[in-house]
Design goal:
The structure is a homodimer. By secondary structure, the first copy, chain A, is α/β, with parallel strands linked by helices. Chain A folds into two domains: 36-285, TIM Barrel (Alpha-Beta Barrel); 291-379, no CATH class. Chain A has 15 helices and 16 strands. In chain A, a hairpin with a 2-residue loop joins strand 15 (290-293) and strand 16. The radius of gyration of chain A is 20 Å and the shape is globular. Chain A starts with 12 loop residues before the first strand and ends in a 10-residue tail after the last helix.
Chain lengths: 389, 389
Amino acid sequence: MHNKKDHITPGLFRIKAQDGRARRATLHTAHGPVETPVFMPVGTAGSVKAVAPDDLLAIGAGIILGNTYHLYLRPGDELVARHGGLHQFTAYPGPFLTDSGGFQVFSLSALRKITEEGVVFNSHLDGGRHLFTPEKVVRIQRNLNSDVMLALDECVAYGSSREYTEKSVRLTSRWALRSLDAYHAGQAEARSDNLLFAVTQGGFFTDLRKASVEDLCCRDFAGFAIGGLSVGEPKDEMYAMLDFTAALLPRDKPRYLMGVGTPLDIVTGISLGIDMFDCVLPTRNARNGTLYTSRGKINIKRREYADDDRPLDEACNCYTCRGFSRAYLRHLFVSGELLALRLNSIHNLAYFIDLTRRARASIENNTFDRFKAEIESVFQVTTDIRIEK
Amino acid sequence: MHNKKDHITPGLFRIKAQDGRARRATLHTAHGPVETPVFMPVGTAGSVKAVAPDDLLAIGAGIILGNTYHLYLRPGDELVARHGGLHQFTAYPGPFLTDSGGFQVFSLSALRKITEEGVVFNSHLDGGRHLFTPEKVVRIQRNLNSDVMLALDECVAYGSSREYTEKSVRLTSRWALRSLDAYHAGQAEARSDNLLFAVTQGGFFTDLRKASVEDLCCRDFAGFAIGGLSVGEPKDEMYAMLDFTAALLPRDKPRYLMGVGTPLDIVTGISLGIDMFDCVLPTRNARNGTLYTSRGKINIKRREYADDDRPLDEACNCYTCRGFSRAYLRHLFVSGELLALRLNSIHNLAYFIDLTRRARASIENNTFDRFKAEIESVFQVTTDIRIEK
């Protein structure tokens, strides 16, 4: 959380402890320090779905992700700028990271055309035609006053050919360098000290992953993201490529695995040296009634919870678990009450935030392996478990 | 709010001030005093839609309404009883009033058959057949541990004949007396000191309204509701019948106008001596983007708010108005964000709660007429007003 007294130059990344490849660090931003490894709740359109800023503060969430693509289209980055940037507009005082928009252009937009200049796409809202260039995407994120901005990249689909992926990697590298030039050119008028990360790509080809990192890692980006994973590939392929790529990234910069993932993915990522994660999983699953607990995943819809007066997770201290029974949570969910969506979302976010908090403590204590084994034993059973009375 | 130190025998109704026919009083319940005139947020299925108990406490809401019909069908009054009654089940510590179920049986149920014994109806959820008798409805509300219970009544439709209404009034009276017998018989085993109100009916016939009151007002009900108004009649007819009926009710018992209404209806009701109100209007309108402010009703969807950085209502101190701009609230609403529904609901509830708080203060100061005139001047314009810059 932002604390004026402790203000340190944004971009400074201090590794405090290491346990195997797992790292415990602090990334300083213009809106306060980010303790890593960190899970970033996703606030696509400037709101983490179903929860409010006070909920996020109560959970102990730190940095929030906003989607550049969505915010550019609605309400518009210039409107957000007129309202003081994302922090003031959304009334969340902590740091924001915004993605490059690349992934959304490729996943949400019906039509798109990539050229050297950038990518032309049609809005998923009204079909309107838009152009993203590396320079424009930096400008949009400056308007949002994002603490951590990402350079425009192309996210190639799983199964793309080597030839296509190679061309794409080089284009992403050229776009990243143009982003960096635009970043430096805009520093003087910036509202605050926004940081710029590059996104490494390379699909599922190790030599292209290596080429991407080599193109980018010697430049003065504040951190490096790993893009193009968790796009439909088998889990072991993702883990192998993550293992390979994470090891190539510079030790002294934060590493961000985009759009990942489950608690198992997160502890695996941490074990391979990843510092930052984001995913819609906790909030999306909350809205479907799937809840993460210290005993595994449960579906609150199930009849077995109808008369269960215990809290959702006795190991959890969130507002939901402190105040409400499983019986009431089930009743709210099956009755279609909006409160169910908020209470479920608060709990799932608290679970993910607490997961990374515990990971940080275990790295400090050199007990990360044991912590990882605990999470693995809880989540190896991928179907809903029955929590016995 | 509940305060053990100030615990006074439930049912005690103390009038503290009077200004014309408007009364400022306190109704003591097993879960704390209710300061009247009071607006009761509607928590149909045990949740005031889109808000949580902490929101209600922050707004300063006192007594909450639960719908007996809904809670009986889902999750079931016996389940609620096993979980400590409504207060413990829903985690709201303040008083609850539950209605008789009569209105819902007549408005939601596809099939119903009224006999001397009670009313047979089909659930709107699964079509299942159920019977409500006066005795059963008291038992259900005891299971809910309602602080203020209502006797089963028949709510006749607007336009019902004199003949039908007369028969119905007499049946409602007989049901009320059976309810009172069941109430007394059950007092010994009650979890707490639940109060029982009778519902007066009589359609739009003054002599039948009078007959209904005369049948019931000499009995030891803790209070009297006026039912069968706001069922589709013109406003002046409602006000005339309310004026007539309120004047007949005993001075020393609380008077509750069921299912009403707008800010104008509420100040009119207060001016005629009504103490208690409930309505879905603030929460339902909030979910449609219609918001009540000190300057009138506004629709937050309108483009004119897109770039408006002022709070929704500068005269309001709710979480929504303290923290968020109209521009952000409009963005959330047009983007379909769930947070919009909570923030809008918090504000509208705060408006209605504050309306009755101000009414109470004005009665104490003998300035109720001026307060009523202020509210009338704000809401005479029934279309959306434009709040100028």
